[in-house]
Amino acid sequence: MLEACENYQKQSYRNRCYILGPQGPQMLQVPIVHGPDKAISKVRVDYSTPWVLQTERALDTAYETAAYYGHYREGLFSILESQPDTLWELNLALANFLLKGCGIACELRPTCSFQADAPDDYRNAIHPKREDGIEKELGLGRPYYQVFRDAMGGFTPRLSGLDLLLNEGPGSLLFLKTIRK
Predict the structure, then answer these.
(1) Where are the alpha helices (DSSP H) in the chain?
(2) How many C-alpha atoms does 169 have within 13 Å on its Cβ side?
């Protein structure tokens, strides 16, 4: 289940992620149209700036030598270039892309109502503006291959699942299967 009834949260991972570029971690951000409706499923993506082109260029720079980038690039770019109207539609398309790329058969279903305290609730467990123990708790901070790992002095944690997929491809599933529950 994906939370479809919450209000959009500024400065959260709902419209940003981090990739590893030649200069280190780089934030990719989807601009949104600030309007009266704050429901996450209604927040519109702002295409008045060239963020899609900038994102594609950043991905090319960061991952052009990654083992699986050529395999996934077209599918990823087709999602960005289709310009989904809402952040919800864009995030859902990207989540399905990542799941399929990792070889995970999963149906993502939106919630019908907001539940403040849902079981296995990770909505607020991970946030770009504060440290958390979620990576350690789930065993996700362990290294996998990254294109710029040597230039960065080793493995860089807290990146998008896209980093894992583009570097490890179908091997991402093996990495994810070892998550602690």
Answers:
(1) 51-63, 69-81, 87-102, 134-138, 161-168, 172-177
(2) 8
pLDDT band per the 50, 70, 90 thresholds, residue 10: confident
148, 61 contact by CB (below 8 A): no
pLDDT tens track for 56-102: 999 999 999 999 999 999 999 999 999 999 999 999 999 999 999 99
- Cα separation, 61 vs 100, in Å, equals 24
Amino acid at 130: R
Give 81: exposed, middle or buried? Use CB within 10 Å, 0-12, 13-18, 19+. Answer: exposed
